[in-house]
Amino acid sequence: MSAEELAERDIHIHVENVGGIDRTDVETVAGVTVLTGRNATNRTSLLQAVMAGLGSDSVSLKGDADEGAVELSIGDDTYTRTLTRENGVVATDGEPYLDDPTVADLFAFLLESNEARRAVARSDDLRDLIMRPIDTDVIRTEISELEDRRRELDDQLDELDTLQDDLPDLEAKRRRLDEQIAEKRDALEAKEAELDDADRDVDETREEKAELEDTLDELRRTRSKLEDVRYDIDTHEESVDALHDERAELEADYDELPDAPAGERSELDAEIERLRERESSLESELSELQSIVQFNEDMLDGDDVGRLDSLNEGSPGGDDSVTDQLVADETVTCWTCGSDVDADQIEATLDRLRSLRQETLSDVNDVREELDELVADRNALDEKQQQRDRLERRLDRIEGELDDHETTLEDLAAERDALTDEIETLETEVEQLENEEYTELLDLHKEANQLEFELGRLEGDREEVVVEIADIEERLDERDRLEEQRADVQEELEELRTRIERIETEAVEGFNDHMATVLDLLDYENIERIWIERVEQTVREGRRKVDKSVFELHVVRTTQSGTAYEDTIDHLSESEREVTGLVFALAGYLVHDLHETVPVMLLDSLEAVDSDRIARLVDYFAEYPEYLVVALLPDDAAALDDDYERVTEI
């Protein structure tokens, strides 16, 4: 149901065991509802219950209960949440109003513990908060995929460059072979002419000539086989030399690899496991501390340290500065011992718990960083071991190939010896068949046979070169297509990166515009401007440094003389930091148009703002959500319009 359809419908909420509430039912109408009362009246607990019904998990279960429930009815529609404590952890379930409460938690549910308000008070980088509701993961995935594709194209283009460099040498080799083939053909033609002349000069019978010719043909074929065997022997010997060289290089690489100390991998595994157990233990401790702090904050009903610390300083001031907007001191009943104690004593204890929580969080981060380093060390160790294994496997294959070549060489040597013996036998037969007139003819046949063999070898080499040139030219034809693809990929990359920069810039501009609006509404004399700047910084991610955008918050202040100067959050008073955080969170509500998707806006812990300014804020934001629920002390509530709905009993 849309927010418009919910207009003019009452809200009814039933709560059990949430915060400091045992059980209650509260009903309110559309518009502004003021939860008014003193401290420890469960106003913040009721706001948490509303958050739970809307979908938030930032809700605490009552300290003495293991189960809690919220039932939120808006008009005819009902939304439910259950809370269950198991092993010190509170789990939520049910069917809330929102499927994803991320943006609402940040900018619509503005309690004291609101992450946006706290981030400003701690001077955290605001980029994550501002960009979290904006889905840029899809764009970043596309960028990563395009970068991978660009690297592939660059590799292919580099390969084409190498082939292009090889082409001139191949073409020169082809020309040399053409010249050698032409020379060899001329020599063969000349030798055949000499052979024809010698044949005509020989006076012999047809039978004698035929027998001699057959023997000479057999001699020619045998010589050709012998040349082939010699060529194969040369080829295998070259392969053996190449394998010996490769083996020497691989053995050198293997020797350069550092030895892995025995047990180092298991020691790393054990240390990683220990740190993970430590991380889990710290996270459990952090969760328990969070529950304790949240419970005690709920019991104090959201009153902040800044307010309590200044309760003894007198009555509320005017508009001179934010730090002057505080009220008188009071006592509360301790919920652990039952005695009346000063609220600032409880707040001091809470401060110590918060400090312990922050220290524990720091310990968790330290453990995670150490874990990342150890996992990286283990990965590096695994990579070296894998490299060592690869080298060993390749060395084993080389040994096998060398054995194969040696076996083949032995066979070829035996075949060469046999062919040599056969040639000697054939030459003896020829000598027996020929007379002195055939001696010259035999020599010519031998020379012609040798020329034919050499010519065939040259023509075979040329054919191989021609095929290789054709393959390269075919590959080079792909260059234009690959370069066009790379240009397209680069253009897409630049467009996507520009899109993220544009999204971040627009988000920052939106926050700056709306913070200016809220600040004008509050009209503080000593705070001139609050604005966010998007800057690029080099940050550390694990073991490497990367450039990332960071959103820095700036505060421009004015002196009593009217001089403006820039200050940092760290230099502001605690109440001024609270106001700055509130301004940032309220701007986020306006930037993301949350009134269009979230029917309820919640405001709490406004003690750093004086009652007149609270009234202006409420009047301004009353125009946006269907339901604006604000928790105020009676003095602050008195400044609001009497027509606003008021709830005094929870």
Plain-language structure description:
This protein is α/β, with parallel strands linked by helices and 650 residues long. Among the domains are: 1-123 and 594-650, Rossmann fold (3-Layer(aba) Sandwich); 202-310 and 344-434. It has 15 helices and 15 strands. The strands form four sheets. The protein has a five-stranded antiparallel beta sheet with strand order 2-1-4-5-6. Strands 7-13-14-3-15 form a five-stranded parallel beta sheet, with helices on both faces. β11 and β12 (564-567) form a beta hairpin. α6 runs antiparallel to α11. The longest helix has 91 residues, at 343-433. The protein starts with a helix and ends with a strand.
Key traits:
650 residues; alpha/beta; Rossmann fold; 15 helices; ATP hydrolysis activity; Rad50/SbcC_AAA
Quick summary:
This protein has 650 residues and is of the alpha/beta class. The protein contains 15 helices and 15 strands.
Radius of gyration: 45 Å
Give the percentage of residues in beta strands.
Answer: 15-25%
The parts where pLDDT drops under 50 for at least 5 residues are 302-329
Topology, number of strands: 15
- Assign the structural class, choosing from mainly alpha, mainly beta, alpha/beta, alpha+beta, or little secondary structure: alpha/beta
What does the average pLDDT come to?
84
